[in-house]
Amino acid sequence: MRKTIPIWVAITLIATIVLSACAPQATPTAAPTSAPVSAAPTSAPVAAPTTAPVVQPTTPPTAVPTEAPVAPGAPLPRSETLYFNGQQWGSVVCWNPYSSNCNNAMAIAQQDNSRVTMFETPYLYDMLDGKQYPLLADGPWAWNADKTAITFKLKKAAHWSDGTPVTADDVAYTWASNVKYGTNPGVNFKDYIDTITAVDPQTVEVKAKLDANGKAVNPLQVFSYLSNAYVIQKAWTQKLEARTGGDATKFLADPADDVVFSGPYHKFFADDTKVVLIRDDNYWGKDASMFGKLPAPKYLAHVIYKDNAAGTTALQAGEVDVSQQFNANVQDLWLKDNLPISTYLPDAPYMIGASLPTAFFNMASYGLDQLAVRKAIAIAVDYNTIIANAMTNQSPTFAQVPRSLMNPTPGEQALYDQSAVKDLQFAGNDIAGAKKLLDDAGIKVGPDGWRYYKGKKLTYVATCPNGWSDWQAAIEVVAAAGKAIGIDITTNYPEWSVYQTQVTNWPLPNKNFDIFMMWSDGAGPTQPWGRIDHLLNSKYAQTKSNWNGNWGGYKNPDADALINAIPSETDPAKLKADYTQLVKIYLTDIPSFTLMYRPQSFHTVNESVWTTFPHQNDGTNPAVPPLDLTDGWSIAGLYNLTLVKK
Question: Residue 361: helix, strand or coil by DSSP?
């Protein structure tokens, strides 16, 4: 637990900014130089252990409570309940693991670090070391000789909540259903995975889709599926199909109150005030082949707070144990308020950075097809002000982690030659340099004080969704930078329902979307390739229903060729050269520019009831990442928790 008496020299504190819930994958701040190494693989990751290692607690484990559960909706015993905030906003819609519209954040999230409280994946991704550890799987997966198919086995101990075993047929039928009914995993992976079949009850074969040369289209995406997509019971899926008549819309909309699961928790209670999961004491993971015991909390509970301010108040009061929300000036909670509250890193930036919220230029807007204009705006922005105000220093600066296409983790930073792009990197607030750049390009200041290109005034609107306070604060700084160099930039904040429809459909509106913010990929098995693909690949440019990236419409065949080559490249030197060239292209053309670093997840804990949460250098092996004890390998943290001794 962090000491509750301030031990650091007083620092200048930034005014509190209340941040409402942000983009689905908005995630802040970069790791300092002493952060745990995160080795994001560029081809197949290091083979997972033959059995997932049990994280060793730093203190003796608390005995798992065995009391009978309370009645649903009744007060929960505090010593058996782990409380969360920042994940669940609004009432749960359904418990259907095939659906992407359940609004069920405590139970369902298929992503690079999938939420595995109720439903499980074959492997668990660990953002700290870039490896995939077996969960349902028994040992590492393996490519065949020509790298066109992966095989892996399932643990014999793994079973469903109805007591039947998890089998290869379940894995195969899940994939077939994902494709048939157009689920998110089906849509996202169907271009890379051909078939998934059961070799025998315990053995799964995943065949890659092949290109014209007989090689896997994208090996990175094939093994990424193994820690992204849930395994769902075949028998229950068939039951779901029977009652929905094979209709895809009905299949995905079914509430699935009878769903069978394999994870350690399941539905106990849910209404418009809170969601509670209860531990399955028959959970297979207590077998010696996995964790060897049950997770410590009997209940996982999430009160539905109206906003971040209410969530912060509950955290301060000890009513929340794990906070997955932005708590402005988080250091005040221990430095000023002397509360037993802490973050994964003891000092700024407090979190592990993985995501790059980015401002995109609309390449169709007048004048933004000119590099001098784009670059002048980008280098003039005062990023230190954004980090201090919007992020309250929960992000490293661009002087600490120079801009590229990589997140701040050491593993990604090592994948490009920083010295080769040093002259292209910029830390911001370079007003003089921006003015000179525009002057040299002949984009002069007119009598009214504004700059003109070919006789037309440069005037733009910078925008982001209304209520996303950190993004709005950042956009205001972008607008201020424009005015400082003679480019008239105003701001506009539409509601998300309007914003997302317009940003994801080309052509962008001819007003209000000249400069606009969207997110980028966080840490995952395909990174940094996936992030770069989404930022630069021409296949996404100028398309409709585009939730992938490159929303500004940038096209560059040289970048496309490098992006397409990387997934099959295995030579580390060639990979580094390719990534370096992509960074050069990005920082030369500036089709977009990152405004801040954000953590993969906000992860702040109150240790008044529970302790032994994941912290930097806590002695766990593999190190448990700060992903709120619900996502990917972070679930291992639930097995380390102990009650605070009174």
Answer: strand
pLDDT for residue 303: 96
Residue with the two structure tokens 């359904």: 94
What pLDDT was estimated at residue 67? 65
Nearest to 561 by CA among 591, 530, 536, 524: 536
Instruction: For residue 501, give both structure tokens.
Output: 């429809």
| Alpha carbons 185 and 384: distance in angstroms, whole number | 38
For 108, the 3-state DSSP assignment is: coil
Interatomic CA distance for residues 103 and 87, integer angstroms: 10
| Closest by Cα among 20, 23, 29, 24 to 408 | 29
The token duo for 463 is 């925008």
Whole-Å CA distances, 394 to 147, 162, 207, 331:
41, 44, 42, 10
In angstroms, the CA 112 to CA 91 distance is 24
Instruction: Tell me if the bond preceding 75 is cis, omega within 30° of 0.
Output: no
User: Rounded to an integer, what distance in angstroms lies between the CA atom of residue 81 and that of residue 643?
Assistant: 10
Query: Of 25-34, 69-78, 376-385, which range is least confident?
Result: 25-34
Q: Which two tokens stand for residue 612?
A: 């032994």
Residue among 263, 289, 357 nearest 631 (CA): 263
| Longest pairwise C-alpha distance within the chain | 79
pLDDT in the model for residue 409: 87
Smallest CA-to-CA distance from 102 within 120, 82, 87 is with 87
Amino acid identity, position 617? N
Contact 511, 461 (CB under 8 A): yes
Cα–Cα distance for residue pair 294/641, rounded to 1 Å:
11
Helix (H, G, I), strand (E, B) or coil at 301: strand
Instruction: Give the burial string for 380-398 (b: 16+ CB within 10 Å, else e).
Output: bbbbbbbbbbbbbbbbbbb
* 240-275 confidence digits (pLDDT tens): 999 999 999 999 999 999 999 999 999 999 999 999
Considering 38-42, 345-349, 370-374, the range whose residues carry the highest mean pLDDT is: 370-374
User: What is the rounded CA–CA span in Å between residue 134 and residue 421?
Assistant: 38
pLDDT in tens, 151-175: 999 999 999 999 999 999 999 999 9
Query: Nearest to residue 394, comparing CAs of 442, 326, 313, 451?
Result: 326
Looking at the DSSP bridge assignments, the partners of residue 606 are 341
Cis peptide before 622 (omega within 30 of 0): yes
Q: Which helix (H) or strand (E) holds 469?
A: helix 469-484
> Nearest-5° angle of CA 551, CA 555, CA 560?
105
pLDDT greater than 50 at residue 35:
no
101 close to 115: Cβ distance less than 8 angstroms: no
Nearest-CA neighbor of 444 among 381, 484, 487? 487
Residue 264 CA to residue 248 CA, distance in Å, equals 29
Q: Render 475-528 in DSSP notation, one character per residue.
A: HHHHHHHHHHTT-EEEEE---HHHHHHHHTSSSPPSSS-SEEEE----S-TTTT
CA distance 400 to 98: 42
Q: What residues are paired with 198 via a beta bridge?
A: 204
Helices 234-244 and 168-181, interaxial angle, to 10°?
A: 30
Provide the 10 A C-beta neighbour count for residue 195: 14
pLDDT at 62 over 80: no
Rounded distance between C-alpha atoms, residue 201 and residue 427, angstroms: 55
| Strand 642-643 to 610-611 pairing | antiparallel
Query: Could you tell me if 252 and 104 are in contact, meaning their C-beta atoms sit under 8 angstroms apart?
Result: no
Nearest to 246 by CA among 200, 181, 294, 188: 181
Across 342-347, average pLDDT: 96
